[in-house]
Amino acid sequence: MAKTPAKATRAAKKSAATNNVSLAERMSFLRKQRSITLEALAGKSGLTKSYLSKVERGMSVPSISTAMKIAESLNLSVGQLLGEIQYEGAISVVRQSERPSFMRGGSGSGYNYEMLAPRKQFKTMEPFIMRPPLQFENDKRFNHSGQEIIFVISGRMEVEYGGSLYQLAKGDCAYFDAHVPHRSRSVGKIAEALVIVKAS
User: Fold this and answer.
1) What 3-state DSSP class applies to 42?
2) At the top level of CATH, which class does the domain 96-198 belong to?
3) Which helix (H) or strand (E) holds 103?
């Protein structure tokens, strides 16, 4: 039987209200629905009771890996915990003029970065625009967990990775395990590259 206009309106409002429920409210509801105490959830997830309480009160936003631990402890998929397909912050659009920039090294000889997703929640990767210096900054090299991608947008770059040098031109891409010491520099003029860092 078709819904009356009034019923359809009420259903639409109910659906909108459901979609607007915050992660904090959803997590609290799902936990209580399953009669699981914060202590029990802490024991199952390996997280502290105080941290889980902060999440439920909206005082802390979990990383995607932490959200996966919570979801698994509640026998849910992370999508169900976050509200299935969409949740607040599911998409982040940053205009070119809005990209925060910072310098590594704190001077003109350092690396210049622009953050591409500063407001995105539940990130599993960190994208930047990088402009490396023309000369390597002393003997310092970088290493961290996870993996990294460097895609050259303009100019030419030299990447030192594990003691070997690799020349990259516009359109070239390097994908590597980031625990190996590495660094990069521009060749000829300041190059521009998309850098994506994915934590392990």
Assistant:
1) helix
2) mainly beta
3) strand 101-104
Eight-state DSSP code of residue 98: G
State the Cα–Cα distance between residues 156 and 114, nearest whole angstrom: 19
Domain boundaries, the chain: 5-82, 96-198
Q: What is the pTM of this model?
A: 0.58
Q: Which CATH class is domain 5-82?
A: mainly alpha
Query: Whole-angstrom Cα distance, residue 70 to residue 106?
Result: 39
pLDDT per position as a tens digit, 99-152: 888 776 544 447 899 989 887 766 778 899 999 999 987 888 888 888 999 999
Residue 184 tokens, joined: 């990069």
CA pair distance 8, 14, nearest whole angstrom: 10
**DSSP per-residue letters across 118-157:** TT-SS-SEEEEEEE--SS--TT--B--SSEEEEEEEEEEE
